[in-house]
Amino acid sequence: MSQKPGRTVQRRLLGGELRRLRESAGLTIEEVASFVRMSTSVISKIENGKQAILPRNVTLLALCYKLDEELSSSLIRRAEEMEKPPGLSRALADTVPGWFDRYADLEGDASAITSYDSELIPGLLQTADYITAITRASRPNVSDEEVSRAVESRQQRQRRILVPGGPALRVIINEAALLRLVGDSGVMRRQVQHLSTCAEQADIRILPLSVGAHPAMGMTFLRLAFTDSDLDFVYLEADCGAFYLEDANDVVRYDALLERVSDIALTREDSASWLATVVRQE
């Protein structure tokens, strides 16, 4: 039986966080079960997002892991949010520690990832120089150390996804993202060369400017598919956090949108040729 729309991702995110906190505390599931007086199967289901995560249970787990008041309160609020009517799931940057890392965990479990990007090269295909340039552009006062962390974090994500047996990756990139000068001409040249190389493994489609107005104008999103289709969702990111569209109707709507954009984008073969031509012209 599938879980109610709007709660699956929240349960998996919170359950994964509770699992990491247990492991950080050096406790086994058996030890935790004894402390909170729950069965090991219940603890396991909570950590894997397989059942409701009640605020009172989170309170007991927080005591068991000796969490500070701020983190405990944040976890309990997230559990309370899940008791509200299902709808749009949201991970807030100010209430969910490492909110993007939580998405990256889900991404690694996907069987297929499809994205459309209008402004940027997709994160999974960005070079280190490109990551550095966009990080500095979006955060003018960022330190060198923070830039290095941003590069390593994204490259770690790439290493997890872009491997044999990893999720099938299909990206549709607006040509405008390739024409925008990020960093300098050298950064963009190396970025396009990298895309051309990645096209051997990933399904990269270029959406030419010549198509004019199109259905996904102004949008950027990722669609994650899982072996269990009940877990599928669409991911929308903002500075303040992220939104997860889990309702089946929303997922179907974005699938239709992706197909409409795919129909007017260059084919995989033509996109690869387009990239190779740009590389040769550099």
Task: Provide the helix percentage.
Answer: 40-55%
Task: Report mean pLDDT, rounded to a whole number.
Answer: 86
Cα gyration radius (Å):
21 Å
Oligomeric state as shown: single chain
What's the number of extended β-strand segments? 7
Shape: elongated
Runs in which pLDDT lies below 50 for 5 or more consecutive residues are: 1-6, 91-97
How many individual domains?
A: 2
Question: Which strand order do you get reading across the main beta sheet?
Answer: 1-7-6-5-2-3-4
CATH class membership of the largest domain:
Alpha Beta
SS-based class: alpha/beta
H and E order? HHHHHEHEHHEHHEEEEHH
CA-CA gap between termini: 54 Å
Give the name of the CATH architecture of the largest domain.
2-Layer Sandwich
How large a portion of the residues is in β-strands, by DSSP E? Answer: 5-15%
Largest sheet: 7 strands, mixed
CATH topology of the largest domain: Endonuclease, Chain A
Q: How many alpha or pi helices? A: 12
GO molecular function, one term: DNA binding
Protein name: DNA binding protein with helix-turn-helix domain
Pfam families: DUF5753, HTH_31
